[in-house]
Amino acid sequence: MGEPLTEEQIETVRAGYPAAADGGPTMLELGALVNGEPRADVQITIPLGMLNRHGLIAGATGTGKTRTLQVLAEQVAAHGVPVFAADIKGDLSGVAVAGEPNEKLLARTEGIGQAWQPRASQTEFFTLGGMGIGVPIRTTIEKFGPVMLSKVLGLNPTQESSLGLIFYYAREEGLPLVGLDDLQALLAYLTSDDGKAEIARIGGLSKQTVGVIQRSVIAFAAEGADVFFGEPAFDPADLLRTIVDGDGIERGVVNLLEVPGVQDRPVLFSTFLMFLLSELFETLPEVGDRDKPKLVFFFDEAHLLFADASKAFLQQITQTVRLIRSKGVGVFFVTQTPKDVPGDVLAQLGSRVQHALRAHTPDDAKALKATVSTYPSSGYDLADALQSLGTGEAVVTVLGEKGSPTPVAWTRLRAPQGSMDPAPAVTVQAAVLVSELQPKYGEAVDERSAAEMLEERATEAEAARAEEEARISAEKEAAAAAKEAEKAAAAAERKAEREAAAIQRKLEQEEARRERERAAAAKKTADRVGSVVTSGVRTVVNQVLRNLFKR
Question: How far is the C-alpha of 435 from the C-alpha of 123, rounded, in Å?
C-alpha cells in the first residue's frame, strides 16, 4: 500500500476537511482517514453546498459503490435535500428501513468514529412504465425528444436528423406524439401514398430513411417499450418534495427508481435517467449557488449512458451537466472507472470517491493509469493505493467550501443507517399504497393524440376521395347524357329540317300548281274575252258595212 502519510501530511488532510461548525456550512461526513489503520480523529467531509458542483463515485464491482451512494443519500435527505437514484439491483431500497446493528457493524463504525444509529429515510418508490411495484413514471414521445429517442433506437446521425424533422412536422401539424403508437401512425402515414406530398414538403427527408426509422420503432415497441411512454407524463417537480418529521425537522424524500430487467434495456434505462435530468434542467428556475442543493441526482451505471452516444447526445449531456448546477441540482455519476465518462463531463465533476480498481488486463492497467491522472498530487502512490483499497474504502477528493480541491484522502467510509438489505416487498407495497403520487400517476390515460387524429384524417381523406370519385363519375355520366342529348337534339333538328324541307317542297309544289291553275284560268279568261271582243268587233264591222251598203 506504499508508505504511510507523515503527521504533517495528515494535518494537511485534516485542515482540508473541516468539521461542521456553528454558523459554518453544513458538512456531510464521508468517513475517517486511513493511514494503515483508520484515524477516527481525522474525519473526511464534504460541504453540502458543494454537491451541486457534481461528483463521481467509481470502482470495480463489489467494492462498495452502492453503500457509498446510500450513505450520501441518507445524509443529504437528513439535511432536507431530496434525492433521486436508480435502484439497479434492488438493494438500495433498504434505505426505507432502519438498519439492524451487529457486532461487525458496530466495531467498524466505532473504529471510524461514527456514532451509528439506525434510521429509516422517507422513501418514494418509482418504476419505469409500471413494470414493477412502484409508482409508474412515464413520459410522452414528444417530451422524450428525437435526440434521446434516436439513442434508444440506435439510429445513425442521418436517421437522427430525419427523426428531428419528423418531430418538427408533428409540432407544425398539431399532432401530439404521446405513445409509440402515435409515432408509428405518423411514420406509416408519411410512407403511404397520402404522405408522399408531405415528405416532399418537409424537405431533407427520404422515404427510405423514414422506412428504416419505422422498422426500428416497430421492433422497439415489440420489446414492450411502449409501456414507458404515455400519459400522465411525469412532472420532475415531484422529485423535489420534502417532509417534516415527528421532531419538526425538514427531511428530503429519497426517490428510488426501480428498474427491473435493466439488463434487457440498458440503453433505455440510462437514456430515461438523462431525460429526467434534462427535464429538471428545462423546468427548474435559476437559483445560483445555494447553501444546499434543491436535489441531488445519482446517475448509476453511467457507462451505459455514454456508450455509442451520438455527437448531439453527448453535447446535450455536457450542456445539461454544466448548466444544471445553476438550477440547484447536483449530479453524481456512478460507474466503474472515470474513463467511462467523457472528458468534457468528467471535468465538471468536482468531487471524486474512487473505490478499488483491479488491473488484471492491459485495458485495466490503462484505466488505472487514466484514473490516477485525474487526481491532484498527493503523498500517495495512487496506482498502488487504488489496488489496495478494501471494500468500503475509497480515495477521496472533493471541492472544499472555497471551491478548491481538497487533499487526496484514503478513506474508510461510514456505514449506512438504513438497512443494507433490500426492503421487504410488503414495505415497498405499503409505501406505494399510501403515496400521494399514486393517484396522480397510477393509471395510464389515453387522450386523443396523433394516432387518432391521423386515423380521422385518413377517414376524412377516404371520404373526400369517395366524394371526388362520385363527383367525377357524376360528371362523366352527366357529360355522357349531355352528349346523348346533344346527339338526339341534332338528330331531331335534322329530322325537323328534313320535315320542314319536305313541307317547303310541298308548299312550293302546291304554289306552283296553283300558279299553273291561275295561269290556265287567266288564259281561259283571256281567250273568252278575246272571243267576245272579236265577236263584238265583227258585229260592229258588219253593222258598219251594212249601213254603208244601204246608202
Answer: 10
Evaluate whether 367 touches 341 at the Cβ level (below 8 Å).
no
pTM of the prediction?
A: 0.82
Strands (DSSP E) contained in 379-440 are 393-397, 409-413
Residue 51 within any structural domain of the chain? yes
Q: Using DSSP, state whether 335 is helix, strand or coil.
A: strand
Residue 405: strand, helix, or coil: strand
Task: Return the number of other C-beta atoms located less than 10 Å from residue 45's C-beta.
Answer: 22
Burial class of residue 53, CB neighbours in 10 A (0-12, 13-18, 19+): buried
Phi, psi (deg, nearest 5) at residue 362: -55, -35
Check whether residue 306 and residue 343 sit in a common domain. yes
Looking at the DSSP bridge assignments, the partners of residue 86 are 257
CB-based contact 1:389 (threshold 8 Å): no
Distances (CA, A) of 151 to 43, 59, 307: 42, 26, 10
Return the pLDDT at 263: 63
Same domain assignment for residues 146 and 249: no
Residue 545 above 80 pLDDT?
no
Q: Residue 154: inside a domain, yes or no?
A: yes
Say yes or no: 407 and 431 in one domain. yes
User: Tell me: the pLDDT tens digits for 165-221?
Assistant: 999 999 999 999 999 999 999 999 998 888 888 888 888 788 899 999 999 999 998
Among positive and negative, which fits the CA dihedral 478, 480, 486, 488? negative
Query: Can you give the pLDDT at residue 261?
Result: 66
User: Residue 297: beta bridge partners?
Assistant: 84, 331
Q: Is residue 450 part of a domain?
A: no
Cell of 331: 449530479
What is the domain range of residue 151? 141-225
Neighbours of 529 (CB within 10 A): 10
Look-up of cell digits 457534481: 54
Domains held by the chain: number: 2
pLDDT digits (tens, 9 = 90+) for 321-357: 999 999 999 999 999 999 999 999 999 999 999 999 9
- The DSSP H or E segment spanning 44 is strand 37-47
- Residues 80-126 pLDDT 10s: 999 999 988 888 999 999 999 999 999 999 999 999 999 999 999 99
Regarding whether 391 and 374 lie in a shared domain, the answer is yes
Q: What is the pLDDT of residues 268-309, one digit of tens each?
A: 888 889 999 999 999 999 998 788 999 999 998 888 888 888
Spatial distance between the Cα atoms of 181 and 490, rounded to a whole number of angstroms: 62
Question: Which of 166, 201, 225 is the last residue in one of the domains?
Answer: 225
